[in-house]
Amino acid sequence: MENMRRIRYLGHSGFEIEIDDAIIYIDICTRNKISGHDRLIPDALDISSIKKADLLFVTHEHEGHCDPAALKEIAERTYASVIGPKPALAKVDVSNRLKVDVRTGDRFTVKGIDVEVVKAVHPQSVYPVGYVIKKGDFAVYHAGDTYSYVGMHEIKAGVAMLPIGGIDTMDAFDAGNACKEIRPTYAIPMHYNTFEKIKQDAKEFESAVGERTKAVILRVGEEVRFK
Predict the structure, then answer these.
(1) 3-state class of 77 per DSSP?
(2) Is the overall model pTM greater than 0.85, yes or no?
(3) H-helix or E-strand containing 47?
(4) Which domains occur in the chain, in start order?
(5) 25-71: pLDDT as tens digits
(6) Phi and psi based region of residue 12 (left: phi greater than 0; alpha: psi -120 to 50; beta: remaining)
(7) Counting C-beta atoms within 10 Å of the first and last residue's C-beta, which end of the chain has fewer, N or C?
(8) Which helix (H) or strand (E) holds 83?
(9) For residue 70, which phi and psi values (nearest 5 degrees)?
(10) Which of 10, 3, 66, 22 lies closest to 220, judged by CA?
């Protein structure tokens, strides 16, 4: 049977990732308003439809990335592990047995998935991180909220999900330059066009990624599959 490797964009910085038999969610946020801003496009995640989830990643404590009610509902139904830095996990009311507290530089394997916790530069957060999530030869980097920084070339992943909103994160041009450092095969823009303040043209990102990388621009609710 062919392995399933797909990524679905849920909106803002949220994704659903399927790697073989593992179902992973990152930075889910189902709120219609984020930090006082009305969402222009509703989130694509229907929490009530989730029957299986293995890992729930949170990059930092901000409400657009950490939705305590949604995380609690999914974790209590599926017994998924909730993975994140301590300030984010403190907001989530689930059993400590389900929580995995992480810090930059951590490397571990959970439920068959290799996880590397990488640096994020987001001064507005108490403790932001990014993740490289890997199984076999398929590795995905989710940057969380971050500016570009020296050392991004050390991140190794075939797929990179990068913020391009330009407010408290990289913009499209900076994210394109980050791709030239990371050199993923595919790059997916995120954290843009959720509300007016972070309006960006993803085509600018597509033009900036360089020849080594293919930009994959997903509308909210769309998915891409990989071999």
Answers:
(1) helix
(2) yes
(3) none
(4) 5-219 (3.60.15.10)
(5) 999 999 999 989 999 999 999 999 999 999 999 999 999 999 999 99
(6) left
(7) N
(8) strand 81-84
(9) -65, -45
(10) 10
